[in-house]
Amino acid sequence: MKAALRNPVDFSQFPDSSGHFGRYGGRFVAETLMEALHELNEAWRDCRGDPEFLAELDDDLAHYVGRPSPLYYAERWSRQLGGARIYLKREDLNHTGAHKINNTVGQALLAKRMGKTRLIAETGAGQHGVASATVAARLGMECVVYMGAEDIQRQALNVYRMRLLGATVHPVTSGSRTLKDALNEALRDWVANVDNTFYMIGTVAGPHPYPLMVREFQAVIGREAREQMLAERNAPPDALVACVGGGSNAIGLFHPFLNDAEVAIYGVEAAGSGIDTGRHAATLCAGQPGVLHGNRTYLLNDEHGQIIETHSVSAGLDYPGVGPEHAWLKDIGRVQYVAITDAEALRGFHDLTRAEGIIPALESSHALAYVTKLAPTMRPDQSIVVNLSGRGDKDIYTVAALEGIQL
Amino acid sequence: MNRITHRFQELRRAGRKALIPYITAGDPRPELTVPMLHALVAAGADIIELGVPFSDPMADGPVIQKACERALAQGMTPRRVLELVREFRRTDRETPLVLMGYLNPIERMGHAAFAAAARDAGVDGVLTVDLPPEEAAEPIKLMNAAGIAPIFLVAPTSSVERIRHTAQLAQGYLYYVSLKGVTGSAALNVAEVAEKLAAIRACTDLPLGVGFGIKDPPTAAAVARVADAVVVGSALVARMNELADDPERMRREVAGQIAAMRQAMDRACMSAALAD
Hints:
Chain A has helices spanning 2-6, 31-48, 51-65, 75-81, 100-113, 127-139, 149-154, 156-164, 179-192, 210-218, 220-233, 248-254, 283-286, 324-331, 342-356, 362-374, 396-402; strands at 20-21, 24-28, 71-73, 85-90, 118-123, 142-148, 168-172, 197-200, 239-243, 264-274, 279-281, 288-292, 294-299, 336-341, 383-388. By secondary structure, chain A is of the alpha/beta class. The longest helix of chain B is centred in the last third of the chain and has 29 residues, at 247-275. The radius of gyration of chain B is 17 Å and the shape is globular. The two termini of chain B are 31 Å apart. At the A-B interface, strand 2, helix 2, helix 9 and strand 12 of A face helix 3, helix 5 and strand 5 of B.
């Protein structure tokens, strides 16, 4: 009874059967996609309860992705910050260098089960595109990745990687020519080719069942971290920190801890040049509820409901929406959402690199920058787990350019 | 009675089918929209679908995406679209007008405020592309109260169960999307459409409109034989864009496209009636 009072919401019970997290989520697509979503939902429900599917997934995660990823105690950095013990969940050590592969391995298995022969994906920074092209190569499937023409310019390395892997990278020239437009274009492709095509969404957004399905594939992060912390400290951590663009690495870490009311949880958005400048991607901190890309969630839009362009030094956080579960977790107060500027993220990038010999992705650097604020406010017997969602190799050119260095 | 229902009754009595042109409000320029609407009516349009531009029109092909971008770049907003409707209504009180757009701009205005403003402007129906019936309970209630017909899409993939459910909530007409794809896609297959329409008719008495992929008079005529309404959009919007610099000629030629479809449809329906 006490537990029930302390924990009035059982987070494992969400979303409901039609994909709602409170007022958020749902399925807001044209009728032309509804049947495809039903078909996907059925297939997903069959697979998630099928021991054979789960065994195959576990095997891929162990031998292809390289799981479990280590939980690393950043002792020197913790000492420098002078507060809580900081643990890094090393998703940067996964195959392809980020958490994205957890999801694409899972969705690709599902696509195979459904008899689909063609994979499509949207990508912003290119990490999800690379993770999609990777699993497509392994399964011998055709792969088309939609990417904003603007992003293709900014992320030449990942574009080449996808092409090496045999994917077709399709430049999107509509709208703002970035991630949101790539998502629109992928949805259009899916409508037209729904018979043989599986659409792999890269984050916990989109119409039901995507936010649920992607969360379940990413929740392996939090399940491992929980076991690892219990083994190491015999207790869950006091705090969790992860960056939030669409929010898949964050929900993956957070979800297995949501029912642990004593664990404080922080989602870190991109404040870009600063929220008051209007050049940012802090959807939860500065947006309003609305509907985009098939779900109701917080959005960055103007007073007339048009989606506005976002800005972040990190392409992976540069998205005007956010997963609907985060919108709900914000409203009910279970997770605190904060924002970190480009400049702060860059400091976090350098801090970890110098303190621990680990070069983090700029996305993850937002979470690290928040840790530098949070850790000193905590006691040395307390602990923080931060999701190091990706490695920084892809960002070296961006960081160098910002610092006026030509490579 | 709602103007849409009234119009379909008139047409049925006359043995004709409805021709429904779509244009995007504010494209190519806001001041050209209302004169274009009048020209479409004069050329034989029975009902108007007016697009409310949105930044992320995910069910539309490149032609209408670009139209949305042009309209937005010139400051088109949902409230300004309603002003255009009000202006149209000053001289045309008979032609039913349906707004077609996406949910977010409506949510941002608020469903109640939108329904009231749309009613006051003289809107007869609203088709919200990304609002499926299962999420639409509240908007439907508000639209019904305002005397506005909620219009819904039915797709080649929609199950009989879904069609029945949708038909119960819809008013005005059901909009059958004639192919898998976005607006302005390749030509449709009339035989397939006819077969699916027969199945839909078994579920509802609502008039059935067909759109997506209708580009020319022969296709319009073929669809008119099996449907109650023919919707044409991208073919008009593409031509309007090509002729944007010569508004006189734009109106004349686009009205000409509609007149040719009108003629082809009426001829097809007359010969079908004679054959009966």
